[in-house]
Amino acid sequence: MFLSEAETEARLDDLRRQRAALDRAIAEHELYLDLGRRLARPGVADPVPAPVAEPARAAPPHPDPVPPASRPVTAAPVPPAAPPRAEPAAEPRPAGGGAARREGRRLIEAAEEILAAAGRPMHAAEIWERLAACGLTLPGHDPVAALNTRLWKRAQGGSVFHRLGDGVYGLAP
């Protein structure tokens, strides 16, 4: 009836793996939601006029076959959906974008300080370990890959970073 110690440890390992998988799935879904919200904000002007409000209004001439279903559905969603989406999207966009830019700049400045303090080229994983120790975060499943991409883009732009190999960066001479 009771589990042995080995069985209990095996079960705990299984549960921990499941929890890790759930944590990854949650993080992925949060990332996609955030990305969807970011992408939806600039395009809010497109969906508001584009919702098929005209065909929905054209549908009421056919309400004789289905009067209750067509009228409430078209009347309720169209008016509330258009005004609220247009107003909130206009204000949060600059604030969210500005905060993300500031956070990105802070991350890159911290990476530059870490490389300067080390006095040698470092792999993105080493840089990430030190950034994480400072309390900085990066979105996504693989923060090292995200950091590597950011450093790689800046190394191409002639900034203070110089790419020396796969994931290895130093300060430009």
Automatic annotation (TrEMBL):
InterPro entries: Asxl_HARE-HTH
Start and end residues of each stretch annotated as Disordered: 43-103
Record's compositionally biased regions (Pro residues): 48-70, 77-86
Residue ranges the record marks as coiled coil: 5-32
Entry's Gene Ontology BP terms: regulation of DNA-templated transcription
Keywords: Coiled coil, Transcription
Domain named HTH HARE-type: residues: 105-173
Top-level division of the source organism's lineage: Bacteria
Record protein name field: HTH HARE-type domain-containing protein
Protein species of origin: Methylobacterium indicum
Lineage of source species: Bacteria, Pseudomonadati, Pseudomonadota, Alphaproteobacteria, Hyphomicrobiales
